[in-house]
Amino acid sequence: MGSETQRLHVVLFPLMAAGHMIPTLDIAKLFAAQYVKTTIVTTPLNAPFFINPLLSYKNIGPTIDVEIIPFPSKEAGLPEGVENFDQFTSDEMSLQFLKATELLQEPLVQLLEKLNPKPSCLVADMLLPFATDIASKFNIPRLVFHGSCCFALCAMEAVMKYEPHKAVLDDYEEFVIPHLPHEIKITKMKLNEEFRRDNPNMEWVQVLGRALESEIKSFGVIVNSFYELEPDYADYYRKVMGRKAWQIGPVSLCNREKESMFRRGKDSSIDEHECLKWLDSKEAHSVIYISFGSLTEVSPAQLHEIAKGLEASEQNFIWVVRRNKNKEEIEEWLPEGFEERIQGKGLIIRGWAPQVLILDHEAVGGFVTHCGWNSTLEGISCGVPMVTWPAFAEQFYIEKLVTEVLKTGIEVGAKEWNRTVECKVKWEEVKEVVRRLMVEEEGVEIRSKANKLKEKARKAIEEGGSSCSELCSLIEELSNYNYNA
After folding, report:
1. With 0-12 CB in 10 A as exposed, 13-18 as middle and 19+ as buried, what is 8?
2. Strand, coil or helix: what is 271?
3. Are residues 143 and 207 in the same domain?
4. Percent of the chain whose pLDDT exceeds 70
5. What is the DSSP letter of 70?
6. Is residue 172 in a domain?
7. Which CATH number is 452's domain given?
8. Catalytic amino acids?
9. pTM
10. Cis, peptide link before residue 48, omega less than 30° from 0
């Protein structure tokens, strides 16, 4: 890429949630590495999330600007200081937050008007549908970023469009999602609430409807995936669903230095060297890593069962437990004497963990995951087989991709869509599934498949690889669009 890309100026506007901001920062790095002028727009309290990791990135890569617009907490009736999805405890709060984002339209327009050079493209989250109209106002293309994979996007749209669940009476009876390349079965209780209730939450239906309408009118979609991972669904998304899409991932692989791996996301709750020293002391593939992401709540009773199951599995482990405002309540789940008994064998990280740094270490041989797409793709990129434990959103679809299409994971047996993981899985089941993955022959076969996907992921982002080529193709299309505008 040369002078033709230097006049491009891509502006990225992510939803204020860790799972959306982290890949946005990686996408910004990918554009900047191709000599595209890149700017990220965010709000005051979310700005350090981008600025801090970019301080270390400056030494090895091009400059990425961060622009700040005010967040209307007060006007939207939200408590002061609430600017991020991670701070919510209910769907009602998240709906209120999305209404607040609509008030960002005018500040965003004012910012775009003063940017120099003028913006050439606006990359905005799917849940910020007004971005398509703003891009049109500036006569520039709007690209949608979902933060998910083609498989999940295809499955969700098929359920929305054909409503196969309406023919099923029992909430736990499986039905086939129609028209997909594979026979994928799911139950009502694993669907988003607006699909499975007799009286759906119409506000969420309207939110998704506006997002879909905005996507269809947009220039296209950026997908954090790679063609070789889900070729049937990449083709289905483009040819059957009619979406213009570019798969440019895994975007996390742009972080090649340990420092940049460590600084992704929020400030870590553990020292980088302490974490690596602990992992270095373990044999290859002997550690299982457990994390439920930044949004999923896990009840104290379920945490207690996980603790007992991990101890009984006799495997080394790193376990990330989200901090709770009520620390005393969180500590109640610990079995008596647990931390003393697991000394040297288990490491509990309370808060934010450097996930990519951990997954990329050769000592890690398994990943108990909530099946958020970032976590899933990071596991795939590091060749780590998974125990799937989905909770809500599109996570149950992603579980199907991992366990039935890719065959690189084993289900723990989660049955119900719920942001809070209640105590449904007993410690004996945790022990069994961890040992199946880490010790038994079944796990050896799964690890072999996972390693092959890791090799494909790494090749995809190299020069001449599918994702690198798609990124170059996208930049060329944006250049042509701006040349002809």
Report:
1. buried
2. coil
3. yes
4. 89
5. -
6. no
7. 3.40.50.2000
8. 20, 125
9. 0.93
10. no
